[in-house]
From TrEMBL:
One Pfam family it belongs to: Chlorophyllase
Keywords noted in UniProt: Hydrolase
InterPro entries given in the database record: AB_hydrolase_fold (IPR029058), Chlorophyllase-like (IPR017395), FrsA_esterase (IPR050261)
GO terms for MF: carboxylic ester hydrolase activity
Keyword set includes Hydrolase: yes
Family from the record: Belongs to the AB hydrolase superfamily.
PROSITE patterns: PROKAR_LIPOPROTEIN
Signal peptide location: none
Protein name: Chlorophyllase-like protein
Amino acid sequence: MRRRTAIIAAGLIMLAGCGSPTPVQETAPSTVVRLDLARGADRPLPTEVHLPPGQGRHPLVVFVHGYTCHVSEYADLIANWVVAGFAVAAPTFPYTNGAAAKLDVMDLLHQPEDVSAVLDALLAASAKEGDPLHGRIDADRIAAGGHSLGGMTTVGALGRWRDPRLKAGIVLAGSARDVGAEFRGDPAAMLFIHGMGDQVVTIDQGRAAYDAVPWPKAFLTLPSGTHRNPFMSPADPDFKLVAASTTDFLRWRLNGDADARKRLAALGTDFDDHLG
């Protein structure tokens, strides 16, 4: 039975769509808690929270899907993070998901605040006795990440709509278009990954956002990468690299894992490393 939690909160972009939802395939046993969240009556934010096996508090990643995409299309990437010990919260955004009755690409401008609202609800649940999330989220180790429009949302959540609880950001085939590159607040390390063959959000747009980041940062170039397959399809030759590098970035930034940092440093000439 789904439970409902209310969250109380006082140019044109052309982006390629994703596709039909695909079955979720977990690569290891995990718990999925499904929450019917909302930020007001017209902003439903149903959210899947994927918890690693075992008890205890886990670092959290809030993941934002792309325009006309479905959370399930990122199941394999999410599963990699969960296996590594990260809790992953994946909301479905009301006017940019693939099943939305009314699509509005410029609803992007509301999504960074949706990320903060979802985070409010998850941390409240984690502090509440008897809740399925009680004691499962570490409030001091939180990152945001997203693909395409979700990457732009992540830039916004670390910029114009800065949520100070975010300690890191992952931008997959994203840019600062329409959200602006107004990074502010305490440093939050950021990892950008972009394909040279991306014809939807060009690598130059991703680079421009990266160049504006004043904090520790890195940019991984996928020489043959396209807009979506490296981030969604395990059959894509770049998927393993994306999964490994994002996981090591999270291990380094949220867990202080020195070995993960060494693996990132060894990625080679396609990795522009200014993580410090």
